[in-house]
Amino acid sequence: MGAHPKRNLKTFVVDVFRWNLRGGIGFQLFRLLLLGCMVMGIYAYSFQARFGLSVTGMNDIVSWGFYISNFTFLVGVAAAAVMLILPAYVFHDPNFHRVVIIGEGVAVGALVMCLSFIMVDLGGPLQAWHLIPGIGIFNFPSSILAWDVLVLNGYLLLNGLVPAYILYCHYMGRKANEKLYRPFVFLSIFWAFSIHMVTAFLYQGLPARPFWNNPLLGPRFLASAFAAGPSIIALILAVIHNFTSYKIDRSVFNKLRLIIVISAIINLLMLFSEIFKEFYFPTHHSSAAIYLFFGMGGHDSLVPWIWTSVCVNLAATLVLAFNPGKNNPKVLLPACVFLFVAIWMEKGIGLIVPGLIPSPLGEVVDYLPTWVELSVTLGILALGVTVVSWLIRAALIIEEKYEY
Amino acid sequence: MHILMNRTARRLGGSIVLILAFFLINAGTGSASEKKSFLDTVKTVDEPFDNRSVHQVQPVTQPTVLAGEEYQGGPFRVLARKEHIERYRCSSCHGDKEVKAQNAFTLTHGNVVIQHGREGSALGCIDCHHPQDRDALEDKKGRKIDFDHSYQLCGQCHFRQKRDWLGGAHGKRVSNWAGERVVYNCTTCHNPHAPRFAKRFPATYSVPLN
Amino acid sequence: MSLPENNQKNKSERGKENLAAALTEKSSRRAFIKNLSIGAAAASATLLTGCVPGADAAVSGELRLRWQEFFKKNYRLMTQEEKEQTVDRLERLAALQGGMELQIGSEPPLPKVLYGYAFNITRCEGFMECVTACIKENNLDRKTNTQYIRIFEMEPGQLDPSTGDGKYFHEVPVENKFYMGTQCFHCENAPCTKACPTKATWREPDGIVVVDYDWCIGCRYCQAACPYFGRRFNWGKAEIPKEEITPKQHYLGNRLRPVGKMEKCTFCIQRTRKGKLPACVEACPTGSRVFGNLLDPASEIRYVLKNKKVFRMKEELGTEPKFWYFID
Questions:
Q1: Quick count: other Cβ atoms within 10 Å of Cβ A141?
Q2: The CATH number of the domain covering residues in C115-327
Q3: pTM of the predicted model, to two decimals?
Q4: If we measure between CA atoms, which residue out of A179, A185, A178, A182 comes closest to residue A82?
Q5: For B54, which of C132, C145, C275 is closest by C-beta distance?
Q6: Which residue of A has its CA nearest to B12?
């Protein structure tokens, strides 16, 4: 740019863009693929914008489907960043200090995906300004959805601004003022628990839906989030360790494995508790669980889905627990992936759709997402991956190359 | 570290106290079991509702008669029936003169099939119709009853339905819930010779949602 | 930045020169954004006042109406005058866009009135005349056969509609079966109004739970919260044959709803606030439906509550519905 490398906020932003627009052929192909997926998603959404939500597979009985399923699951992934922050800031593990920024990047990406899923699920997205207090009406504290909007946006700000501040300081060649951001990091620890509890309360607070209206839903969400989130973070860390010069200590993976295993075991315990309650003495309130696990009235499209999820969940948890490779990544990483997928299946479609089937008057339908829903979901996933890759790439370059 | 723990412990303790206080205060201001139902308020309302206060009510245009009895809200009106009886006045045939007719089957009421009461103990014509004055009906006490006030006859046997009809649990108001009360007569809905509603196909159906 | 500027001045025409001069004045980006925002403000001002020079008058009128409709506030917070203005705009938009002559009302709730409803499960014969009357009166979508009212053919011995058949289509009544209808029960303690994040649905003082269709954001949280399957969503654009549209409408009732908004039974607010019975009550051939003012001790609904054995659906949920079932 000139003789003296002047750095300020403008050059920071420009540099972040520059680093992400340049790269090897593999990286460029990856970005092109993501861009293609996003374009596909926008094209599919145009149908939804034109014809309304009738182009999706949702109807008056299954009024929430694939979009809200993915939203629910991804809030958990976003909350899981706390499982990196806790060892780094509360237990002062120096190896975790290196990877906190990556966890926060994943959290931001997951939150962007969550908010996008909400926006595409709305029937009247142009009226979303009605939520803004002051110019609209914000039904706080009565509506849990209002709480959710607050906590999600707050968490996004926390996880976006704190790392941005730290990275900017490092970029400018000075240490970040820990006294300034440390209270916000601690706030984000509590906030991570709250975003997922509040999202669980969205469902838990509805007396009309006995499948959701049990006190275990909130804690179950936390357990499954802290199993699935660190799994994907472990995968991302492995990718970073193998494909970049940013090296991550083995102890990080070992500790993550421990966190995942404990959460997965608690998750399975809670699942068993729910299954016991539904099937020991089935009542009318158990009809949703019966539909999910055994089918009802000829409708059994979710039966193979949930059984696959439970079996894979169990198998992956056992592998992670007994650790047959002695922390061999070739064993643990696939197990993490399988656990992530199994929890996505069970917490996404396996939670939202059976909660709405049978209808409150007892009618059973099946739900299948349409190509519009699948394409828009793919587009949003690509958006999330893009956000995560941009943030992590910028963070890693600053951490590696800039002296402070 | 221990200084941090003390501070954290104090902060944690303080926030727990605050949360507990919040819930206790909320719980004190009405638990589910003590909550008053709106029905308690409704039942204490005793002043009569002024039906005339609903200005936009359009009065019933069909011909009505004032009912012979009152309901819990005072007098009310009933839809007249005589205009709807095809060959009223009955005395135009049922008189002293000789009557020659072409459509004898219908004119001699041959087309009336009585399905009122069970097989074997069904009603006969003069169980309801006045044997001498065909322009009127007759109840079991020999009182003459006008066709417009057939409820007085029906109500002799069907006294439960009549009581409910007076109160509003049987039958229907015409057009309006407010304004002057006009109700359907018994025979507006029920054919007196076959009062049970005929079997039919429903007007529509519900589509399966997938 | 001075060198490219000189090149530009030599090459461009007068107009471009001025533009370049304007752009390079002070901090170019700031001035550009300022001009852009002034331009946008001017454009919106002209739209609001309606004097767009040279544009088609009808199109600008429609745009202006739609602009005002988009930015209006929640119906519940409007003054009576603002309510009348918005229904006037809606009527004009309907005339402009569809050539329809509508009368959209904004009647406030009647004082000292709380609506109640009773359903006689002995008398209902499953004729579903109520359903067709409701579809016609409330301008429901014919394509998806949206129905606010559901009728269930029930087996004696069980009162739960999940044991009944809601999709029957054969001669009725069937021996040994009884018929039960559901619709929005207008709960006094409605879970749906609590769930709405924008307060687009609320309970009016006369007891009717209403939806401001223009304020709703279509999140369907209320639909998840309703224990009685009372709410419907406009998944697509409603298709109603023009000659079947009921022109007497109410803002909170049977007016034509936009896509992506919630709707439900409104106790025919366009009729009941003028003292008329809801369409379902009027259409029932067997007189199984009773409607009236709960605050009138002489009303039919109060007679039913006092003298008949009544029950409400899912009473244990504490939603306090204003719809009772009774047996003769």
A1: 9
A2: 3.30.70.20
A3: 0.87
A4: A185
A5: C275
A6: A190
